[in-house]
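Anyone else keep sequences and structure tokens together like this?

Example one:
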Amino acid sequence: MKKTSRESSRPVALITGSASSLGSAICRKLAAQGFNLTLHYGKSKVKTLELKNELEASGVEVFLVQTNLSDPGQSSRMIRQVVHRWGRLDVVVNNASIFEPTSLTENDWKEWNHIFNVNTFSPVSLAVAAGPWLEKSRGCVVNITDIYGEFPVLKEHAAYSASKAALIFLTRYLALTLGEKVRVNAVSPGVITFPKHYTRTQQKKLVAKSALKRRGNPEEIAEAVWFLASNHFVTGQILHVDGGRFTS
């Protein structure tokens, strides 16, 4: 690990896909807990700059980094950028994700590869690349998975669901291989947003399937991320924040 000219006096978090609804809520939550932030973006530069300005107005130090997560080989470069800026890294939140329809009959393996690269391989490669720095700070990784990675009911999103299932397995695997100094957990959300093509009727039917009979909000996911980031006796866990979507 190369030395840097400056080490942040505050803990540092890297959040991928930071400008999304979940990502921005997670950023605000960690900022409120005293973190300096690295905001990752792929193509959403304008939205990420807006979030950066908002956070800086509240006194948070923010650093932007652009990386194409469809190339997991870029993970080490991104971690080097983060550490060069801050001199430390305490939390990695793998939030960036692709939710696009696929099936097993279209034989569109190029799209499958793209989804797995972003949703599975990049989070894992980021965790591995960040490992030495997280070990130094006794830090952690929080992955954002999905309840549909455990329950195969999204028939038109086979690759997405499979990629999240793989990330759930690898969350537990990394907890064993990176522990005892680096904790790895995941938040598995239920209905927070809807697929773009869902009608109001479809939305209502989906919400009605949960025990709480309502959709969740990004802030509730951010609270769960903070719980996993701050509790130092929790690792290898998949925390369902789904309103009781699958209770039987």
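And example two:
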Amino acid sequence: MSTFLRLENVGKRFGENVVLASISLDVEQGEFLTLLGESGSGKTTLLRILAGFEEATSGRVLLEDARLDALPPHRRPIHTVFQSYALFPHMSVFENVAYGLRVRGCARDEMTARVEEALQKVHMGQLAKHFPRQISGGQKQRGGAGSCAG
């Protein structure tokens, strides 16, 4: 296995308040990782650093040996599931999942295939035409089609 994601001495301070102190971590390709900790322990801050919504005070973040922390958020292949869902109520489940691919200019055939695949993986293929108001909270948190080629 090769290291997919590497955090090297990542730290974050808000003024004098140290939120993360020298976090180092290797995540291997295909590995599943869960962050657990009490409220205020820095889990969300670490995820915001990975996504590019916060900047680390120290350390580096690498994805497949390339600097991830040097990329703006919209260029990072990182996806966030918001606790408040952040779905467009006027769009179907399919359209919500496809949204990121569409704004990246993904070809229609590829986009359709990727969205259908993602919905099948999370057992929601049969809900593709439903709207957010028609599905459960847990269903609203599932999904994500990734990024398109090119």
